[in-house]
Amino acid sequence: PPPPPPPLPPATQLGIHRSANRSAQMLLKSVHRLARPSLLVAAGTFAGEAALRGFSQPASVCESAAAPQLTMIYFPVRALAEPARMILEFGGVAYEDASPQQAYGVPWKDAKDKTPFGQLPLLLVDGKELAQAGAIIRYCAALVPALVPAEPLEAARCDMIFEAARELDAVNPIVNVFRGEAFDAKKAAFFDSFPAKLARLARQLRESEGPFSCGAAPRWCDFMLYHNLDNARLLEPAALDAYPEVRTFMAAVEATPRVAEFLQARPKPVDIGTKPMLEPNVPGIRVKK
User: Fold this and answer.
1) Residues with Cβ < 8 Å from 51, sequence gap 6 or more?
2) Which of 72, 41, 73, 75 is nearest to 58 (CA)?
3) What pTM value is reported for the model?
4) DSSP alpha helices (H): ranges in the chain?
5) Is 125 helix (H, G, I), strand (E, B) or coil?
6) Strand 70-73 vs strand 96-98: parallel, antiparallel, or unpaired?
7) Which residues are within 8 A (CB) of 194 and not within 5 positions of it... i.e. 6 or more apart?
8) How far apart are CA 162 and CA 160, in angstroms?
């Protein structure tokens, strides 16, 4: 087994979360007209220990205002809907999972042209369709302002990490779609460029003084980064072992309240490369019974 991650730095272990009252009031005055997380005023800031040891999270926008009805429409795969789900779980924001058949009443091939761009995932927000994974993730982050940096440069850095993480998106169909020779070829191509990208991401984590990509507090970009690194680890269990800061980051996300429970409960990919599917083969843990 890989060595355990190094201990968190003392500054992280002793961190405490700041009062969120004033910034939360500012947020609620403006949230109705703000769309992107980079423009939102954060409702509070967490320190690393609070993020790792059962802190009491601040209210999401949904707990302070009229909560939208959210339905995540996606296939039963571990791919582009995962970061948005993790954000919603972190914030305690209610949502449902649904397959295209459940959402549209017809198979995906017949429902495809009914969607904005013929692609999934798709988020229904009070019945209105929101497409494109990046837009969905940023919208979900806007509902959980604790994940959104208040300072413009910090917000831009969060966007930067998100975009860098998305350069690993090719891992998704390798885990969920390809089989046989196609799987072998795609996996080899992915891991040909992966080490250099991982080294750069590890440097960003090291410079942030962690355990998260923007410092002691989890941010919305962390869930995109975690997802793609976790999928890479499904293909090669030792893929992240060379970088202690990466292993510390993964452990920090996995210990985050609500997210930890979600990661344990979600369907597991099986038979990768031969007959890939989820077990149980459902789109998510929030499927309506």
Assistant:
1) 211, 212, 216, 217, 218, 252, 255, 256
2) 41
3) 0.81
4) 10-13, 21-30, 48-52, 61-64, 82-91, 100-104, 108-111, 133-142, 152-166, 171-176, 180-208, 220-235, 244-254, 259-265
5) strand
6) parallel
7) 168, 232, 239
8) 5
Those residues with Cβ within 8 angstroms of residue 262's Cβ, 6 or more apart along the chain or in another chain: 85, 86, 89, 285
Residue 6 tokens read as 């190094």
Tell whether omega for the bond before 211 is within 30 degrees of 0, i.e. cis: yes
Which of 130, 163, 141 is CA-nearest to residue 27?
Answer: 141
Tell me the CA distances in angstroms from 279 to 153, 183, 202, one per residue in order. Answer: 41, 20, 31
pLDDT tens digit sequence for 141-197: 999 999 999 999 999 999 999 999 999 999 999 999 999 999 999 999 999 999 999
Q: For residues 211 and 8, is the Cβ–Cβ distance under 8 A?
A: yes
Q: 29 Cβ partners below 8 Å, 6+ apart?
A: none
Is 269 in a helix, a strand, or coil? strand
**216 DSSP assignment:** S
Q: Tell me the chain's radius of gyration from C-alpha atoms.
A: 19
Closest C-alpha to 62, from 126, 110, 122 = 126
| CA atoms of 33 and 262, how far apart (whole Å) | 31
Amino acid at the residue 127:
G
Ramachandran angles phi, psi of 278, nearest 5°: -100, 150
Q: Is the pLDDT of residue 1 over 60?
A: no
DSSP 147: G
Fill in the amino acid letter for 202: A
Cα-flanking dihedrals φ and ψ of residue 269, to 5°? -70, 135
